[in-house]
Every structure is written in C-alpha cells, then in structure tokens.
Amino acid sequence: MVQNCSRVQADFTAQTLDLGVDSLDTNELKRLKDFIKKKDPGSFLLAMSEEELLFALGVLKRTKFSTAGQVTVAGLILLGQEAVLRNVLPSAEVIYLHMQNDNEYDKRIDCAKPLLSLLDILTQTIEEYNRIFTLKIGLFDYEIPDFPQAVYQEALLNGLTHRDYSLLSPLSRPVRHRKSWFIFWWSNTGKYLESRAYYS
Hints:
With 200 residues, the protein is α+β, with helices and mostly antiparallel strands. It is built from six helices and nine strands. It has helices at 26-39, 50-56, 73-79, 82-88, 115-127, 149-161; strands at 60-63, 66-71, 94-99, 105-111, 132-137, 140-145, 171-176, 182-186, 195-199. It has a three-stranded mixed sheet, with no helix packed on it. A two-stranded antiparallel sheet has the order 1-2. The chain has a two-stranded antiparallel sheet with strand order 5-6. A hairpin with a 2-residue loop joins β5 (132-137) and β6. α5 crosses α6. It starts with 25 loop residues before the first helix and ends with a strand. The model is unreliable at 1-8 and 192-200 (pLDDT under 50).
C-alpha cells in the first residue's frame, strides 16, 4: 500500500556549501572521468567540458550568491579535497575495522577521502582477506573468491550513499571474517537506526 505524505524530507546532499571549485580535487575529477570512460565509453558526459560535467552531475550549482557555482554536499563527497572534507563534513569519515572476534580487531583504517578513492581503499583492504579457492572441472581450473568483488562493493556503496551526512557520527564499518562469511555493520545508515548485512 502506498500512502501520500504531505511532508517531504529535503535532500541534505543537494544543499550548497560556501565553497567554490577550488575545494575540489583535480585528481579525483580525472579519476571520475576515467571511471565513466571505463563503465560507458560512449557516455555523453565524456564530451562535456569539466565545468559542464560538474554542473551536469550536481557537483556545482548556481545560486544567487554565485553564478560561477557553489559546491554541493554531494559534490564535496564525490570530489572534495581530503582536508576540506575533514573540516567541513566530518561525517564523511569512514572507520574500517577488521575484527578478530566480537571485541578485538587487528586492522583499523580511519579515512576521509572522496567517494571513488574511498571505495578503492576499502576494496584493497578487503582483498587482503579475500581467500581464493581453485575449483577444477575437467581440464579447467576456476579461481573462486570467498567474496565476489562486485557484491561487497555494492554493499559498501549502499552504506556510503544512503547514510545520513547531516549526522555527526562517522560511518563505522566493522568487517568480521570467520571462514566463509563476514558482516558489514553500519552505525549511520540515515533511514534506519541500525543495519547489518551478512554475506556467506
């Protein structure tokens, strides 16, 4: 059943900040363009100038205060310089914990980087613990990871994109590995008070 709702919650990430294009990381913009080219070589976005691309993606938005455009919260999350992210948007920090048991961890990463860099760092870290098994079928050997990269990357992106960035708490992400399963545990999910995802 769908119910009409008279109150619509504003999108916090669409709000503009008192920041200009100089708060963005040019290396991250190049990373983003390379990402688009890899995923969709024929994308119309690749034919745009950098300025056009930033406006098209909502990284910049023209306001009555700046016709040149101000950076949105989403734009800062996607392309912001690390120092600016830490100063302006402390909730963008991610804490990764690799748990040995329920109470102890053997690896911790505190990271406040733009989205694509953050995804790369977390992927590299998870791959350190991602065992590969070889399945032999006839003359062929197939390498099978404990956790397919596409699966856990989707879980990571869900946690990163659906969190409530208006809150002050970082996104704490304990990852517990025990043989053939692990748990992502988000302490800041925005819509829900607490969320867990199990993979086995």
